Amino acid sequence: MTGAAPQAESTRNAGIVSRGVAAVIDLLVVLAVMGAAYLGLILATLAFSPRAFSFPAPSLVFSAFGLGAVAVLYLAGCWRVSGCTAGAVVMGLRVEGRTSPRLRVTLCLARALGCVLFPIGLAWVAVDGQRRSLQDIVIGSRVVYNRAP
Question: For the whole model, what pTM was predicted?
C-alpha cells in the first residue's frame, strides 16, 4: 500500500457534514437562549405592570445584536472551557489550537466572532485539503473528531 497512513480517528479533522450539523444544533441552542430571555422579559414586564401589560417589541437591530452577542459568548465560552459546544458534543467534535488542546480566550473570541459574522467561511472545509474553515486558517485552530480510536 502506498501513501501516508490514515490519521487516527481521534485526531482526524472533521468534515463539512459533521461540522454543519453541529453548527445547526448550536444555532438552535442560541435561539432557545434568546427565547428564554424574551420569556423572562415578558414575565418581568407582567410582574412590574400587570394592568398596563403588552408584549415587548424589541427592535430588529436590538434583536440582531442580542442574537450575535449571545452566539459569540456561547461559542467562545464553550470552546474555552471544554473545546466543545452542544453541537460538537452531539457530533463528537472538539476545537483545539495549533499547539495546545485548548484555545486562548482571545482566540476563542476571535474565532467566535468570525463564525458569527462570516458563517459562510465554514463552507471552505469542503474544498480545503486539510478540512479547515476560513476561521480555522486565520486563527490557527482545527476541529477534530473527539471519539476514542
Answer: 0.86
